[in-house]
Amino acid sequence: MRLQRFLAQAGISSRRKAETLIASGAVRVNGVVVSTLGSSVGSHDRVEVEGRRVTADAPIYRLLLKPRACLATLVKDGKRPTLARYVRDAEPGLKVVAPLDFPAEGVVLLTNDGALAQAMTKSGKVPMTYHLKLQGIVGDDDVERLLRGWRWEGRAIKPASVARLATTEKNTWVEMVVAETRPRALKGGGDVIRHSLLKISRVRLGGLSFEGLAMGGWRDLSKSEAADLRRRAGVE
Hints:
This protein is an alpha+beta fold. About 25% of the residues lie in helices and about 30% in strands. The chain contains 6 helices and 15 strands. It has helices at about 5-10, 15-25, 115-120, 140-150, 185-190, 225-235, and strands at about 25-30, 30-35, 45-50, 50-55, 60-65, 95, 105-110, 130-135, 150, 155, 160-165, 170-180, 195-205, 210, 220. The strands form 3 sheets. Strands 5, 6, 7, 8, 11, 12, 13, 14 and 15 form a 9-stranded mixed β-sheet that branches. A hairpin with a 2-residue loop joins strand 1 (about 25-30) and strand 2.
């Protein structure tokens, strides 16, 4: 296995950052500094980063249904509830990928696969399905405007599909499929059609659905599900 992939799988960093660590001389293999990219390691090699031994355990891929009014972090806050309430004794290196804001609910990914975490954050390739509660009556013109897209913090946001789910006298529920991990970027969509975004619920992450999960519940992905997610994210 290539050394940079080993470090990413061990949860040390993304593969790109692992290359920087190697080039800086921070990585030793069997006591010898390795600064050449493309070096390989085997199961019996001892790998150290800045003097600390690391091991590439089998990567973890876990889908969790985040409740509302909960911080999307595995670190205890002391004041507000976090995902640490639902994932006790989280494995070292486990990160929350595609985190949701405190008031939002829906599926998030927990993984120690640094390469996948980096790709999902940066690439904008993995489609997410959101159910959005918008203030007021969202008409056909509003749907067409959302489909044309908008910009948020310098990045273009363009949904693959937008459909009305339900309408009351005061609000409209809309289903939006968009390759966007930042829930706040969806508020920009509400702004362009002048309908305040009241609630966000992520019901699908890539091909993974919330179905079968209770609030705060989680499950580990199958090998085929993990492989599909990596493929969607553009990870080798």
